Amino acid sequence: MQTERFDTVVIGGGQAGLSAGAHLARTGRSFVILDAHDRIGDNWRDRYDSMRLFTPGHSVGLPFDRYPSKSSDAPTKDELADYFEDYVARFRLPVRTGVWVRGLRRAGDTYLVDAGDVAFECANVIVATGAHREPRVPGLSRRLDPAILQFHSSEYHNPSQIMEGPVLVVGAGNSGGDISLELSPAHDVWLSGPDRGHIPVDIDTWIGRNIGARVVIFIGRHVATLRTPIGRRVKSKALGQGDPLVRVKPKQLRAAGVHRVGRTVDAREGKPVLEDGQALDVTTVIWCTGFRHDLSWIDLPIFDNEGAPRHERGVVTGEQGLYFVGLPFQFALASDVLPGVGRDAAFVVRQLDRRSARRSTAALVA
After folding, report:
1. Range 219-223 contact pairs with CB under 8 angstroms and sequence separation of 24 or more
2. DSSP 108
3. CB atoms within 10 A of CB 239
4. Which of 57, 175, 303, 348 would be 288's cystine partner, CB 3.0–4.6 Å?
């Protein structure tokens, strides 16, 4: 196995990893960004075709840069992916694509990042794999009739994938709302899941993009933080519940004829069953049931009883030189989205740089 050595390895080349890389580049330390995708930005390109960001163009720039469009319209997922790719080229960030990290462990005083044929030895690691990693599908999916087409929202691209007949979309968050509305012209659609509320402002109007969005971003960055009582209350709710609908509104779903129903809780005779006992006769089920942040590849004693890493603003407690960027509510409600991830990356890299400087000074004195 080939071994390469760097001061810092960043794992993940999405918005969190690129933000960390931009700040690391200014420290002069040697580093590399490892990304499992074949092309920079593919974590966005792989999402459903009609997807657009909720964030307007004026608020999606990466560190030390602005999104190039003169319009405040929300970028499409492909436009954002292309921006990431261009950003890496312009800032000359050392990203290696197609590198799947299989493990992270200690090797004496350093870390060893296992990437198959190559191992990376380093003093510091920034885990920037983002808020989502592994699709989550309920176990009851295995008890549905094999004739029912099933897939997770991460595999959905457009309506051409859907079989003729009624569709059940499980999960009434933003992906579920978007997909249900998109399928409603050609299918009888059932949208299953609890109502988490919605943002009343139309984010695609001028007022929504230029006033409403700025207010929401300000709250997400500066009000709902770990430093404020309201922020700490918001965190406890945000991590335990789904997000409110942002672009799609309940009145749009009603107008499109989408059936809003309760949770899907069981399977009976191969059919999905709602919490009221109703069995639905559908031909397709789309699981918009979110993702789990899988960190099982990290072989280090850093996790609490619920499997979450113990950290303070991304600085792991009890494991010197290990950091996170892009965790949900790492410091604020906006920590895992573009308007907030750059600030967290800057904080983490400052802590990393100060720690490394102290170690270098101590070594010289010794």
Report:
1. 219/333, 220/332, 220/333, 220/334, 220/337, 220/339, 220/340, 221/332, 221/333, 221/334, 221/339, 221/340, 221/343, 222/332
2. T
3. 10
4. 175
What is the rounded distance in angstroms from the CA atom of residue 302 to the CA atom of residue 318?
7
59 DSSP assignment: G
pTM: 0.92
How buried is residue 293: exposed, middle or buried, by Cβ count under 10 Å (0-12/13-18/19+)?
Answer: middle
Ordered structural domains, the chain, with CATH: 2-133+293-365 (3.50.50.60), 136-287 (3.50.50.60)
For the stretch 128-169, pLDDT in tens is: 996 556 889 999 999 999 999 999 999 999 999 999 999 999
CA distance 250 to 242: 16
**Residues of the chain where predicted confidence (pLDDT) is lower than 70:** 130-133, 239-242, 360-366
| CA angle 192–194–197, rounded 5-degree value | 120
Would you say 344 and 313 are in contact if contact means Cβ atoms under 8 Å apart? yes
Rounded CA-CA distance 101/185 in Å is 42
Spell out the alpha helix ranges (H) of the chain: 15-25, 42-45, 77-91, 174-183, 206-207, 213-218, 229-238, 250-255, 338-365
CA-to-CA distance for 77 and 46, rounded, in angstroms?
9
CB 118 within 8 A of CB 276: no
Express each pLDDT in 248-307 by its tens digit. 999 999 999 999 999 999 999 999 999 999 999 999 999 999 888 789 899 999 999 888
The mean pLDDT of the chain is 92
What is the DSSP track for 112-155? EEEETTEEEEEEEEEE---S--EE---GGGGGS-TTSEEEEGGG
The number of C-alpha atoms within 13 Å of 326 and in the hemisphere containing its C-beta is: 22
C-alpha closest to that of 335 among 353, 322, 321, 347: 347
